[in-house]
Design goal:
By secondary structure, the chain is an all-alpha fold. The protein contains twelve helices and no strands.
């Protein structure tokens, strides 16, 4: 009877290889959730919904249906206002360390997003789609600006937060993922200084934005360079044949696509992180304006 010899080193290498493949797949899926294309359409759909409701209401609303001062119209405004107050709670919880650590922040963010969408829509219907008093007009315009700013900010948010676990990305982590996915064979075909120039561009907003705008053109040019260099190298070899050329070209294209995928995410993150920073400082004054104008409007309605 022949003994079966098990090589523990081979088993460990196989397990390590499987774990690495799983890690690479998880990292790519997590990174792919950073700035998905469908987030653009979601933001456009929300803006289209708001504008569509306003235009439809302007066209078909009649006071025989409801009026803002009483009944159905009044309770629409009250419900929408309460929802927006709950949406404000996210800012309070975000700056309370104990609540943040207790897990309330993620729930507050979901509440902020959902109520920040439904509340303005209800108040828009409550307004009967026209500006009456001055304080009501200021409140309606302020709410519309906050809604627009919130939808835009949500888009920026998805560009720097992982959709899988809603944690904020950081440049160092993305850089490590990028470094771990590079193939040495591909690096031999890249033009000298190509990678270093793009990574240096990530340090500044305008340089990163410029590199991102022209990224697709540069990627097309880079693929032509790599393909031409591969062809020249194989033609100088004694083992050149079409089948080998097609195989290596396919492998290089796969590796280059993955390489550019990670590099583009680095540039995107560098641009949108700075945009999100400026947006956040512009969004807060609009929230304060909405809160003050909303309180004035409610007080004026019930006093007069």
């Amino acid at each position: 009877m022949t003994d079966i010899v098990v090589n523990p080193l081979a088993n460990e290498q196989a397990v390590s290889s499987a774990q690495q493949q799983k890690l690479n797949k998880t990292s790519r899926q997590n990174l792919a959730s950073l700035g998905r294309y469908r987030d653009i359409w979601t933001s456009l759909a929300l803006l289209g919904l708001y504008v569509g409701i306003f235009l439809t209401g302007r066209q078909f609303w009649d006071e025989r249906y409801y009026v803002p001062e009483e009944g159905f119209g009044y309770y629409l405004g009250m419900t929408g206002g309460i929802m927006m107050l709950f949406a404000f709670s996210y800012g309070i919880i975000k700056h309370q360390g104990r609540l943040r650590r207790s897990g309330w922040l993620a729930k507050a963010l979901r509440t902020h997003i959902v109520f920040g969408i439904l509340g303005p829509l209800l108040v828009l219907v409550h307004s009967a789609f026209f500006i009456g008093s001055i304080n009501g007009g200021v409140a309606l315009v302020s709410m519309s600006l906050v809604f627009l700013s919130g939808v835009v900010g949500r888009y920026f948010y998805t560009r720097i937060h992982f959709a899988i676990n809603h944690t904020k990305a950081d440049f160092q982590t993305l850089r490590e993922l990028f470094e771990s996915q590079k193939h040495q064979t591909l690096l031999n075909y890249l033009p000298q200084g190509f990678e270093q120039t793009r990574l240096q561009a990530c340090r500044g907003f305008w340089s990163a934005l410029q590199a991102l705008v022209f990224f697709r053109i540069q990627a097309w040019w880079l693929w032509r360079q790599v393909r031409a260099q591969l062809g020249q190298q194989l033609r100088r070899s004694d083992q050149f044949n079409r089948r080998l050329y097609r195989h290596q070209k396919r492998v290089l294209k796969r590796d280059l696509t993955q390489y550019l995928f990670y590099l583009r995410k680095l540039l995107q993150f560098s641009v949108y992180e700075r945009i999100f920073y400026f947006w956040r400082h512009a969004h807060v004054p609009l929230l304060i304006l909405l809160f003050v104008s909303g309180v004035v409007h409610v007080v004026a309605v019930h006093m007069y």
